[in-house]
Amino acid sequence: MQKIVIIGGGLGGLTAGALLSKKGYPVVLLEQHNIVGGSATTFRRKGGFTLEVGLHEMDAVHDNQSTKEPFDMLGVYENIEFVRPDEFFRVTAEGFDFTMPDRREKALSALKERYPEDASGLDRYFNLIDNLASDIERVQHARWWELMLFPLLFSNLLKYQKLSVLDVLDELLENEELKLILNANIGYYHTAPDTFSILYHSFAQSHYYRYGGWYIKGGSQKLSDYLASIIRENNGTIHTGSEAVSIATEGKTATSVTWKKRGKDNLEKADIIISNISPAQTCALADLAYQETKKTASSLLSVYLGFSKNLKSVYGKQAYSRFFFPGVKTVDDYKALLEKDITERGFVFVDYSQIDAGLCSPDKSVASICTTDFIAPYLEMTEDEYKQKKQDITNAYLKVLEEHYPGISDLVEISEVGTPRSIQRYLRTPEGTAYGFAPSAEQFFRKPQVQSPLLNNVFFTGAWVIGGGFSPAVNSGNMCYKAIVKGR
Ligand SMILES: Cc1cc2nc3c(=O)[nH]c(=O)nc-3n(C[C@H](O)[C@H](O)[C@H](O)COP(=O)(O)OP(=O)(O)OC[C@H]3O[C@@H](n4cnc5c(N)ncnc54)[C@H](O)[C@@H]3O)c2cc1C
Predict the structure, then answer these.
(1) Distance between CA 447 and CA 455 in Å, rounded?
(2) Which of 353, 356, 351 minimizes the C-alpha distance to 364?
(3) pLDDT band at 285 (very low <50, low <70, confident <90, very high)
(4) Does 277 contact ligand 1 (Cβ within 6 A)?
(5) Which atom of ligand 1 is nearest to the CA of 464?
(6) Percentage of the chain surpassing pLDDT 70?
(7) Per-residue pLDDT tens digits for 122-164
(8) What is the whole-number distance in angstroms between the Cα of residue 189 and the centre of ligand 1?
(9) CB within 8 A of 126, min separation 6: which ones?
(10) What is the pLDDT of residue 64?
């Protein structure tokens, strides 16, 4: 069996590694951080808090074929518990408040009740995103002859491939408030609806409406650790605190990876290399000339909070994930907010006490605030300015929360801010993104690049293959596995 060396232990690298080691391939995984998981990690803080780095909700855990197939093969459902929040999300904006129910039919009828003038447009919107999501799923599993007939069998994908979410909503709907609501969670994927790919939007949103959003009980680290345990149980090796620093090549073949641990160089011979980092970073390791033409996705800022009390018992039943858009009534207002200072931006407040998240003792709670962000301003700050900025951000967001959860600031036991600079530090991603390439209308629809065009035996997995998010990263690991096993 060919020896596989994996660079990076994010969800993509771990999924590919677990599948391949289970199939009998010798796997060595190199992870520069001292834990595996990348964005799918948690960290502990005093007071008994486990803080979730990234996961708020992953889509369609049981029904998305691309997630189900690898999860079935790896026994994920028997070993990891998934929890489903009661609603999709709540939006609190300027002059209106709307809770998007869980499940498609309930969501659709709540929207129609609120916006009856757009009832038929809403029907068309929901049918369209479902159809596009099915086509995307279908194209991933298409046989060669189906791909030959692509223009006939997937005419909708061709029609919508370059359209933005707003292009489509403007065609279907009148109410500007409604357009904002349907995009409330866009910050998880992209910056603004006028450039966001309708295909990506449809795939993600349709799955959330139809099959729910899910949290991993105990935190996303459970899934990452479980995948790592499969690699180890199948005689694979995982080196943490081990950074890949170069790839040796002979012609178009990669032959080994040099990695550094505590300042010492080590060499790992490889028949196949899987890269869980960006194509540009991979090429740089192999000293190959490569100019990336695609734009990188935006980054995220998170404020991680541990509370001395259980928020649900203090404030009662609230939404698990609630978007606050101060001063925002329309998509245009939302876009304008992105230009403002980070302290004035809208955000999502994820209150893990609303579900059985298992992140702290039942008398306390954990929450996180998250918003779209960009790395540039943080790179120019001195350490003192950076520290101060983090404090200002926490204060500004807590002030907004105070209006809806009076006294919440007094319950904060611990708080910590993770900026795009922190993501870059912990994940080493370009521009501190967690989402790979920007899923914009102009560049999202493309053939996923699973195998490197420059090196025959280098494969890719992770957010750079299809797009960001838990499901696409897991799916990309499965695609990478299949490409390697098929070519064996
Ligand atoms: C704050 C936040 C919130 C999020 N919320 C959600 C959500 O609610 N739902 C959802 O579906 N998705 C969410 N995501 C996105 C999702 O977590 C990611 O898109 C996905 O986990 C990326 O997986 P990946 O396989 O690309 O690996 P990554 O997570 O990017 O991991 C790559 C790994 O490679 C390692 N590495 C880098 N360079 C080297 C090197 N030279 N040598 C060795 N190792 C290296 C890094 O340390 C890292 O562990 C969120 C992300 C963040 C940050």
Answers:
(1) 18
(2) 353
(3) very high
(4) yes
(5) 26
(6) 100
(7) 999 999 999 999 999 899 888 889 889 988 899 999 999 999 9
(8) 13
(9) 104, 108, 209
(10) 86
| Ligand 1 pocket residue status of 276, Cβ below 6 Å | yes
Decide if 331 contacts 166 (C-beta within 8 A).
yes
The Cα-based distances of 59 to 55, 88, 115, 206, 413 in angstroms read 11, 10, 26, 9, 31
What local confidence, expressed as pLDDT, does residue 457 receive?
97
Q: Which atom of ligand 1 is nearest to the CA of 299?
A: 53
Sorted by where each starts, the structural domains of the chain and their CATH numbers stand as 4-81+218-291+443-486 (3.50.50.60), 83-217+296-427 (3.90.660)
pTM above 0.85, yes or no: yes
Say yes or no to pLDDT of 488 above 60: no
| Residues 235-270 pLDDT 10s | 999 999 999 999 999 999 999 999 999 999 999 999
Shortest-distance Cα residue to atom 52 of ligand 1: 54
Helix axis angle, 470-486 to 65-74, nearest 10° = 70
Quick check: 38 pLDDT over 70?
Answer: yes
How far is it, in rounded angstroms, from Cα 55 to Cα 390?
A: 21
Instruction: Give the mutation target among 31, 33, 34, 39 for probing the ligand 1 site: most ligand atoms within 8 A of CB.
Output: 39
- How far is ligand 1, taken at its centre, from the CA of residue 201, in Å? 20
Q: Is the CB of 38 under 6 A from ligand 1?
A: yes
Give the number of C-alpha atoms closer than 13 A to the C-alpha of residue 113, restricted to the C-beta side: 10
Instruction: Give the pLDDT confidence of 212-229 residue by residue, as tens digits.
Output: 999 999 999 999 999 999
